[in-house]
């Protein structure tokens, strides 16, 4: 049996741990051969692959990123994409695929499975918004990085009696924001699931100052104000004559400063959240995902995705992962609100 | 309603996060008053307590240890212990207790509940071996500290072609060993659940050297050899004329060196694993445990313990937590073995 | 003797360590009393102070920020500012001042000294650009935070074959950029001391891609292009209809992408660099600065600043610290260039 | 010109950074070729070497340990050792050597230089006790690891009202102990330079408890009691019937517990201090050492060692490095004592 492996979408700490586990167990226990496709679906599309043996996956467990490269290539948006993949798999003698990725990558995997390609999926998203699994690897690392940043920002906010806004990742779901916000002791957490009310935010800010502390606001990049709010006109120009304005975090900080008169600053954590060595949990989860994915291949359990449920790794239909977005439940957000203001 | 809070047993990152969440929600949402008892069950036994208000729990979320102190005092082993607790609770006007602790502390809580004391429990053990909850806070921190240490030891082992033994916590269960060992890429993991065979360990060591790498062995402090093994006589003396020999890790390293001729060293991570700031996950779990514990008090749901199941916090009977030890399942240990040797 | 202590300017890890050392040694060795002025020069200006005893400085050694608060208040820009300070010092019985701060704070201290106020200075700048001392505390912490971020960004850049620009602090001097850039293995480092040539930067970027690696560019916030470069017109609009454009890092990333066709991203590390717990070196340096500052007070050595020279703490005239900016020497930048491209 | 590079003695974070800098600059600027000798002086002794090009040193900057391996082989203690080295250098066409190491490795280098071998040295010792340089790389990493451990141990000590002894590296000099002890807020620091008085130590311990805090004692592995002290007889046996007793830290903890009645524990940090990724400072210092070492080769400045003086890298005669041990000066220890008790 020759198995192809690929990683698609944004990179994520733990991808290499999955690859290593797949290859180590596949070779030692099942005697398989492995091909690593380069750059997500671009690899099988263009027949770009290299052999993966035990030596190739040595030392990669603690390394962030992916040794296979990644891309957002979608074969269904390319002429004859699926046909070309079939041809390349046949040409390279690849019997089955393990696709490690998020919504897009697994969406392609689902469709390919429906077309008869033997494929097993491993869920990956830094944002933790994939359905059917308690957590995805990479998320814990992102949350720890964001929490450490919040820890650091507390002291600066206090020393200067300043509002500190921290924009974290999360375009469609507020998982990083709510986890890091609760862990970091944020005074306000704003998530895409619940449009925020600017008056309410300013009230929390002022209440925090009244208790003689400085507020930290954690906001997901996809959070939005209630309709009609924040249509202000900024005119501050930068060195090149452009209006200087960033994402929602910066807009919010500027607006709070305008409304409350309190000095406000924004830090956008950005890509730092998704790089570097994975936490112990993410290495553990990614490794177990890899071990169970190759077991699914061995069992011929095609069209399945490995998933975490409690402390168990289970298999669910690939389609389940992408059928809806996993968002922060209302009750959890209510728990977080205990500490607002 | 006046609620007493206490922390018992070995300290653990996250204790302060529980206390803070209990007090913040209890005051803001339910209008309760709080008394913090000092040093576990010694507090109610001797009536040693201090008021806990919002100010008292400010800034403690990221701090390791416990602001209430801890001890291993067991009122059931002290004359009139239970009576004295009843009297002190009455005298101090304490209506209910939240007991945060492990097997011993919750064992006492269970018995007190049977005797009519209104008590709610929060599970705590760095070792993760309490029944009825997926994880306990503090464990993730310990695993990350151990994993980081293993990461560091790899490079030394490689540079000197040396066997490196790392002894981690876990007297009765190998949770820290197996999590940190898998996350750290250990070549052998030894846990209390499965007595090890010294010949097999040495074979793994030699196989690792044959692939031109240096072995890292992670061993739980409670791991033991198969019967009849390791009855060697060491005669190495230290500066004071004493035979120099430590715990199982050191014994194992010495034995491996004797048998394989390879230089072997042992590091005992010890108390470093249980101190300091909690990881984001542990702060999150501890905070949610605290929020749900005070809800249980509010609901009058006495004799219950909060517990993690998947991503939910649930309530289980206190007695369940201590009725048996949660050990590493055989299948999980088999997964880990994929990477041995 | 009653000594006043204040911290001015931007906050910086290590400020609390200085305060602790000053107070501990001053009380134990010399029997002094201490007043902590709030928010830099605003404190003495408005007579806003609180007593500092051993208890007040307990546990602050590892904490970032400053327990005294900070501000940029300049008494020489306020009517009767100096007079009011004199009056308040007299009223509060303060015999001498220890001023901990950067260019502005020490500039005020210098002038006050010239006017007869008994003052000793402690140099503080995250940017390391104060003259007359090898290093200032806080700088090592900032460099380590930036280096860790660069470490993390490498794996993302590689996985996506992307240009990653990292904007670090340093308005007038490139110390953080060159230290973190060299430590993080950056492929290009751009500093305020040497205006950069955009063609050259793009050439380095392309050479890096030619060796099959992805470039990391570290740029100080104060770095500027050679005259006439970068006057491009961006028209990208954000959600609020504003042109979306940030600091020099973002401008550079956009320009590189335009010129080379390679996907380019920018992360602005911002305030995360100046908060949180100090590194061991910064705690050590800050502690020693504090111990030597109170010795200078004891010796009546007014108008002096403590400074690091090699491994020694020495005293230099306050005026020296601010007489010129300490910039990155040309030879050091040449050393860094070894690794460009 | 073909240059040989070797690393000897205990491993140390930063060794790879030196190798990388030497090779990168040597190839790009001077057009040299490089051979990496394996395992310190064993490499040239046995002619065991491999070519080092730019590819071979890619990605090693942040990695601890040494890609060349290390050993304590001393050619002067082996028959015809020097002759064999000469022959191998000639056979392999090696014109000059860069020896990276501590007292032993540089001692050999000094003697070889006296015999006409062209050699340049780079000082390396985790203990920071080499003469003629302000600091050596690896030391800052060790100090940070030890400081972080002390930070963590504080909370455990407080929670349990316990004496915590932390044994750190430093056989002949107390540099790590005094730096980490001061940075970590230790209450007692014991170093080899000054034999300690047990009564005094117990007095500090008790004074700390009297202020309602728990003492942390940092002790260098080479610290010794005053003559005649600590000749106690321990009889505690371990599972194998051996007297259970470790290094000086454990002995001290046992003795303090016996004398003061306070529960006392010891953690021996051990090899964790010398492994893993270097701090930013160590990467910076190691990189600059490497750049200046290859410059010395280019200048034909044989028999020299690079050294740090303030912020400058200078060259000193190799013999100076080893002519005496650099110990903690008495005044510095006095500074640290400000915080004892």
Gross morphology of chain A is elongated
* CATH architecture assignment of the largest domain in chain A: 3-Layer(aba) Sandwich
| Strand proportion of chain A | 15-25%
What is the count of DSSP helices of chain A, taking H or I runs of 4+ residues?
11
Number of extended strands of chain A = 11
Helicity level of chain A, as a percent range? 25-40%
Topology:
Four copies of one chain form a homotetramer.
Chain A: E1 2-7, H1 15-30, E2 33-37, H2 42-46, E3 49-51, H3 81-92, E4 96-101, H4 103-114, E5 119-123, H5 139-160, E6 163-168, H6 175-184, E7 188-190, H7 198-210, E8 216-220, H8 248-260, E9 264-268, H9 280-298, E10 304-309, E11 312-317, H10 318-323, H11 330-337
Parallel strand pairs in A: 1-2, 1-4, 4-5, 5-10, 6-8, 6-9, 7-8
Antiparallel strand pairs in A: 2-3, 10-11
Helix pairs in contact in A: 1-9, 5-6
Task: Characterise this structure.
The structure is a homotetramer of 341-residue chains. Chain A has 341 residues and is of the alpha/beta class. Chain A folds into 2 domains: 2-138 and 278-323, 3-Layer(aba) Sandwich (Rossmann fold); 140-274, Phosphofructokinase domain (Rossmann fold), CATH 3.40.50. Chain A is built from 11 helices and 11 strands. A 7-stranded mixed sheet of chain A has the order 3-2-1-4-5-10-11, sandwiched between helices. In chain A, α7 links the parallel β7 and β8. The longest helix of chain A has 22 residues, at 139-160. Chain A is elongated. The relative contact order of chain A is 0.17. Chains A and C meet through α5 and β9 of A and α5 and β9 of C.
């Amino acid at each position: 049996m020759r198995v192809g492996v690929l990683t698609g979408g944004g990179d994520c700490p733990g991808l290499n741990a999955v690859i290593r586990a797949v290859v180590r167990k596949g070779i030692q226990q099942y005697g398989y051969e492995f091909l690593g496709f380069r750059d997500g679906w671009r690899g099988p599309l263009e027949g770009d692959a290299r052999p993966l043996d035990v030596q190739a996956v040595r030392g990669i467990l603690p390394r962030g990123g992916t040794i296979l490269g990644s891309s957002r290539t979608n074969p269904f948006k390319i002429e004859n994409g699926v046909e070309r993949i079939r041809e390349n798999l046949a040409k390279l003698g690849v019997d089955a695929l393990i696709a490690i990725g998020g919504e897009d990558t697994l969406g392609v995997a689902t469709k390919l499975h429906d077309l008869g390609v033997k494929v097993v999926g491993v869920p990956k998203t830094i944002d933790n918004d994939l359905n059917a699994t308690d957590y995805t690897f990479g998320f814990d690392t992102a949350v720890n990085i964001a929490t450490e940043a919040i820890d650091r920002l507390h002291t600066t906010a206090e020393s200067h009696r300043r509002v500190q806004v921290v924009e974290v990742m999360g375009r469609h779901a507020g998982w990083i924001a709510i986890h890091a916000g609760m862990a970091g002791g944020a005074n306000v957490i704003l998530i895409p699931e619940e449009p925020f009310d600017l008056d309410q935010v300013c009230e929390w800010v002022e209440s925090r100052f009244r208790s003689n502390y400085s507020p930290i606001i954690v906001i997901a990049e996809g959070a939005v104000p209630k309709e009609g709010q924040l249509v202000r006109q900024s005119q501050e120009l930068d060195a090149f004559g452009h209006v200087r304005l960033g994402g929602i975090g910066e807009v919010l900080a500027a607006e709070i400063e305008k409304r409350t008169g309190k000095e406000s600053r924004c830090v956008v954590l950005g890509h730092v959240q998704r790089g570097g060595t994975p936490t112990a949990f993410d290495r553990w989860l990614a490794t177990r995902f890899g071990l169970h994915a190759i077991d699914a291949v061995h069992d011929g359990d095609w069209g399945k995705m490995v998933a975490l449920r409690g402390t168990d790794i289970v298999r669910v239909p690939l389609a389940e992962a992408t059928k809806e977005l996993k968002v922060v439940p209302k009750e959890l957000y209510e728990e977080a609100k205990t500490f607002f203001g």
